[in-house]
Amino acid sequence: MTFFAIECKIIVCGKKYNPQLCRTKRDKRVVYLVFSSLEFIFIFLPAFFIAYAAVPQKYRNFILFTASVIFYGLGVKKPVYIILFLLTLLLNFIVGQFIENAKKTKKLWLFFGVAFNFWWLIFFKYWGFLGENINALFKTGLTVKDIILPIGISFYTFQNVSYIADVYRGTVRAEKNLINYGAYLTMFPQLIAGPIVTYQTVAQQLRTRTHNIRLVEDGLKTFTIGLGYKVLIANQLSGLWNDIAMIGYESVSTPLAWMGIFAYSFQLYFDFNGYSLMAIGLGRIMGFEIPKNFDYPYLSVTMTEFWRRWHITLGTWFKENVYFPLGGSRRGPSKTLRNTFIVWLFTGVWHGASWNFIVWGLVLFAIIMSEKFWTGKFLNKYKFIGHCYMILIIPLTWLLFAITDFERLGVYFGRLIPIFGKGGTAVLENDYVTSWETYRIFFVAAFIFSTKLPEIIYKKIKNSMFCALVLLAVFWGSVYCMYKGMNDPFMYFRF
Fold it and tell me: Is 351 designated active site?
C-alpha cells in the first residue's frame, strides 16, 4: 500500500481507498458517528450546541442526556443495546439509593450492583473467549457464537461500579435526580472511549456549572488540537503499520519492522490522547471539567512512571477500586506483590478477551516489579539510561498489545531481533528507505508533539492571532483528510 499523506490519499492495490469496500470484520463493531467524522462535526455537534444554548440551564442536563442517547444509538449495531444501556443506568441509579439508605444490607446491595454490571461485561466481552478455552482445555463441543460487543461497555461499566462504590464508601451522596445521573453516565464526549469520569469528579458540575465565552474558546482549541492529533498524526502513521501487515511480517526487513512498531506506538498514543483531548474540549464547552488522561508518558524513564502518565483515569480507577481495597502496599512486600499482580491481570483482561492481553498485563507486572525492587532507583538516577531503556521497552510491550495471534507475534519479534527468528530475506532489501521517505514527516511530528515543547509554546501564544490561524489550518486540514476518507475509527472503541 502506497500512502501519500500530504494529499491525504490512500492507494490500495492500485485503487483509491474506499471506506465502504475496505472495512474489516472488526470495523463492523465500531461506531460510525465518531468525533473525527464530518457527520459529527458539521451535523450532530452544531445541532446539539444550538439546542443546548437555547434552553435555560436547568434543562441542559436533559438536552445532554437526550443527545448522548441519540449519539450512542447511532453507533450501536443492535437497538436492543440501547435498552441494555438504559437499563444499567436505571438499575445503578436505584442501587445507589438503596446503598445510601440501607443500614444492614449495604454490602448486599453493593455486591448485587457490582455483580449485575460485571455480568454484562463478562457476557458480551468474554463469553466467547471463555467458551473457546473450555473447548480447547476439556475437548468439549460448546457452541460459541460471535457476540457483537456493545460500544463503550467497558467504560460505562467502570463508571457505574465506581459510582455505587463511592456511595458505599460515603465519599459521595447518591444522586436523587435520574436526569442528572443519566447526563453523567451517558455524556457523549466520554461515553464510548473515556476518559473514565467518576461521579465524584462532576457531581457538583451536574447541578451548577459555568458557561462563558472563554471556556467555549478554550474548549474549541482543545478539541481542535485533539482532532489534529488523531487525523493528522495517528491516522497517517497507521498507514505504515497497515503496509507491513499487507506485505507480511515475515517479508519485512529488521529496520522496517522497528519503524512499524514505533509507528504503532505513536499511532496508539495520538489516537487515544487525541480522543481524550477532544472529550476534554467538548466537556469544557458545556461547563464540565473532564480529567486529564495523559501526561506525556513517552518522556518517562521507567515503566512505573509511564503507567502513571498513560490513561490516568483507568489507573486511578484500578487504584481506588481494586488496589486500595485489597490493602495496597500497607501489608508488606508479599501482599504488595499479590495486589499489584491482581491489578495488572485485571488490566490485561480489561483491554481485551484474548491471551495476548493477559500476557501483556503480566509482562508489565514483571517489569514494574523489577523496577520496584531492583532497577527503578538506578533508572531514576541516571535518566539518560532510563530514556534509552524506555525507547526499547515501550514499543516491545505494545507489540504484545498490537498482535493477538502468538504465531504472528513470534514472526514479528523474529524480524525485530533476527537472532531469535527463523531468518529470511525481506521482499525489498531497502524497504525501510522508501517507507522512511514517505512517513518521516509524521515521525518527526509525532516525536515533537510527544514532548512538552509544543505545550510550552502554545501557552505563550494561545491568545494570539497567529495561534488562531494555526488552529484553523489544523481544523480545515483535518476536515480535508476526513473528506478524503481518513476518518479511521478510534482504536479504543473495541474496549
Answer: yes
Question: Beta partners for 11?
Answer: 2, 16
Rounded mean pLDDT, 354-364: 95
pLDDT of residue 226: 96
Cα–Cα nearest to 446, from 239, 234, 243 = 234
- Retrieve residue 191's grid coordinates: 461515553
Long-range CB pairs of 336-343, under 8 A, 24+ apart, other chains included: 337/369, 340/365, 340/368, 340/369, 341/365, 343/318, 343/319
Residue range 267-274: mean pLDDT, rounded:
95
CB 300 within 8 Å of CB 313: no
pLDDT given at position 358: 95
Which band of pLDDT confidence, cut at 50, 70 and 90, is reported for residue 494? Answer: low
Helix (H, G, I), strand (E, B) or coil at 140: coil
The angle, 0 to 180 degrees and rounded to 10, between the axes of the packed helices 355-370 and 333-351 is 150
| CA distances to 139, 222, 225, 447 from 467, in Å | 63, 12, 11, 21
How do the domains of the chain map onto residue ranges?
32-208, 214-494
Say whether pLDDT at 404 is over 80: yes
Please list, in sequence order, all residues whose beta carbon lies within 8 angstroms of the beta carbon of residue 472, skipping any fewer than 6 positions away.
none
> If you average pLDDT over residues 212-233, what whole number do you get?
95
Cell of residue 114, nine digits: 457490582
DSSP per-residue string spanning 15-84: EE--TTTS--TGGGGS-SS-TTSHHIIIIIHHHHHHHHHHS-GGGHHHHHHHHHHHHHHHH-SSTHHHHH
Lowest mean pLDDT among 207-216, 266-275, 378-387: 207-216
DSSP character string of 241-292 = HHHHHHH-GGGS-HHHHHHHHHHHHHHHHHHHHHHHHHHHHHHHHHT--PPP
Q: At what angle do helices 383-402 and 355-370 cross, to 10 degrees?
A: 170
Residues 429, 226: contact at Cβ < 8 Å? no
* Catalytic residue selected from 211, 311, 351, 387: 351
Residue 45 pLDDT > 60, yes or no?
yes
Looking at residue 3, what DSSP letter applies? E
237 or 23: whose pLDDT is higher? 237
